Amino acid sequence: MRVTHLSLTDFRNYRQAEVQFRPGPNLIVGRNGQGKTNLIEALGYLSTLGSHRVSNDKAMIRAGVDAAIIRAKLEYNGREILAEVQLNRVGVNRAQVNRSVIRSRDLPRYFSSVLFAPEDLALVRGDPSVRRRFLDQLLVLRTPRLSGVLADYERVVKQRNTLLKSARASGIKEKQLTTLDIWDERLVALGAEIIEERAALVRLLGDPLRLAYQAVAGEDHGPALVPALSILGADDDESSGSGGGKIAALPLPAANRSTTEVFRSALDALRRKELERGLTLVGPHRDDVVFMLNALPAKGYASHGESWSFALALKLASAELLRRDSATGDPVLILDDVFAELDQSRRRRLAEAVAGFEQVLITAAVLEDIPEALTAHTIHVEAGAVTGVGA
Hints:
Layout: E1 2-11, E2 14-20, E3 24-29, H1 36-48, E4 67-76, E5 79-88, E6 94-97, E7 100-102, E8 113-116, H2 122-125, H3 128-142, H4 146-170, H5 174-217, E9 224-229, E10 246-247, H6 259-277, E11 288-293, E12 296-297, H7 298-301, H8 304-325, E13 332-336, H9 344-354, E14 359-364, E15 378-382, E16 385-390
Parallel strand pairs: 3-14, 3-15, 8-13, 13-14
Antiparallel strand pairs: 1-2, 1-4, 4-5, 5-6, 6-7, 9-10, 9-11, 11-12, 15-16
């Protein structure tokens, strides 16, 4: 898969932008604050329905206007697609494919990309929510129907929390407990599916992660991913960074017990505490995945360079997994301001690692930071305008 053309209207600092991309490496160069990252942020949004920089879509709409438009021409297997989304300051966003209206959440079905940016260091050093979001975005890219499962689960958690808060405020009534039992069934059904899908994804990432880490770092530090599941023993302090779960890989340890059964048991054990807190304290929304290096948790033990290598290797492993599974070819690999953080040897190894992808988009503030093999097609950006293209 590749992007052949990107058109932006009132997106970030661009009143209007038209950018042509080629197969292979495409380098976007510009001083900090000129708008180079805005270009790849727009493409990332088409793939994930989110930004790697902000949580609010409205932040991507140019100041003083009501809407922004991202429009991209895509090509794969000889087929051309025009995908577009309108981000609205008021009301819901609108999406189209080949000029036909679709649900916004269906956009990732048409465009697959993997983006690595400096913010991704939070995958190693940040809160569990960052790692959950990473896994869930990758799940949706591989299996788009899971977008609906994740959205349904989030709604159930919100409804269940509302009921728990109501019961805490008004005193527990038999009717409320009966209703809670109904929500529990839905929570367990959806949550067990998410837990198992994440666990399968973690297993699949194992080998590509090890290969990618060695390719980037030049050494084998035994990178590994280990699920930490709240249903195996919740520690409800999300801020602790452990994700609230004991480190344990699936299949679940209790003999002949399904994920569903273990989830139900955890809910039963925490019923009183949940009523006291007014919160759902167990489920995939409180899980984590622990990143391991040299048999130790990377968070707290890995050096800055090791953390960078791990986060980058994780994204390269994701891209490798997607290219194996996809009927549309390679995902578009996007590297945002990555090379400035790497020494010469890591720059060279990264250039070699990405050379086989159908299309790679790279941003950089300094042209000299980029290995020559990746500079064949260079796009220059200044003050919200594409100022030149070098062959």
